[in-house]
Design brief:
The structure is a homodimer of 149-residue chains.
Chain A lengths: L5 E2 L1 E3 L2 E2 L5 E2 L9 E9 L6 E13 L9 E7 L1 E6 L2 E6 L3 E4 L5 E4 L6 E8 L10 H7 L3 H7 L2
Antiparallel strand pairs in A: 2-3, 4-5, 5-6, 6-12, 7-10, 7-12, 8-9, 8-11
């Protein structure tokens, strides 16, 4: 953590002294064209604030976990699967991902899509869907079209 | 907390099912034209995410506390006192308020100014400056001009 109290935005979705990181280890889970930045990861705070950004056509991993996510869309518009439904969301909308709820974010094909995510610093690891979980999710045609392969 | 996973922004700095609250009890501390909204205050999360907005000319209380603040400017531009300096900040800039650090936010005279603030759900109460604290802060002419009466 920098000692500087202010870290300016340097370009849309980029900040001084904030490292753009890979989303996850390549091959560890399905995802596409998404980066991760930790805006605040401070031992004095019980949560982290991260910024995730997808390039056009990008998506996050379809997953669930015991910990909750508090999300604010920060750049552009996209779609999110949460609580058994697919929602259109846009800049500044709020999204709550409850415990053990399958969720995935998708950028549109023609624009970047970014969101803030507040999460407990101490948390469990995400779970990937089994073949049975995927079959159950795909029973809803909207969800089947959203999660694709 | 609403059971709805998505709460859309309804106007700039306003959200569905999020109550605009007074900043603090009137007379409990100096402040002006500032409101508070809790965007996420969820027992499953160890932090809260709040949104504070000042009308033109508004300001937050000059205060300090043991807990830290993680701030992202969200609307417009303004100024912040933190760590013995006054900074100009604008939309999406990040501001860290460390423990026991005097801080205050001020909107410009001609525009609203809003910021997100992540904070531990369990935290100590803010402390107001004593006459001696104010005299010490005012030794710096930039800070004296900023904190005013």
């Amino acid at each position: 953590m920098s000692a500087k109290p202010v870290r300016p935005q340097t370009a849309e979705g980029r900040w001084e002294e904030v490292e753009e990181m890979r989303y996850k280890a390549e091959g560890s889970a399905p995802f596409r064209d998404i980066t991760r930045q930790v805006l605040f990861g401070d031992p004095a705070l019980a949560c982290e604030l991260r910024y995730f950004e997808m390039a056009p056509g990008g998506y996050s991993t379809l997953e669930r976990h015991e910990h909750a996510h508090a999300v604010m869309i920060q750049r552009g518009a996209g779609r999110v699967l949460v609580g058994g439904r697919v929602f259109d969301v846009r800049e500044h909308d709020l999204v709550r991902i409850p415990a053990m709820t399958w969720h995935q974010f998708r950028a549109p094909d023609d624009a970047a899509f970014g969101f803030l995510c507040m999460v407990n610093a101490e948390r469990d690891r995400p779970q990937l869907p089994t073949a049975e979980d995927l079959a159950a999710l795909r029973r809803d045609p909207d969800i089947a079209a959203f999660i694709r392969p």
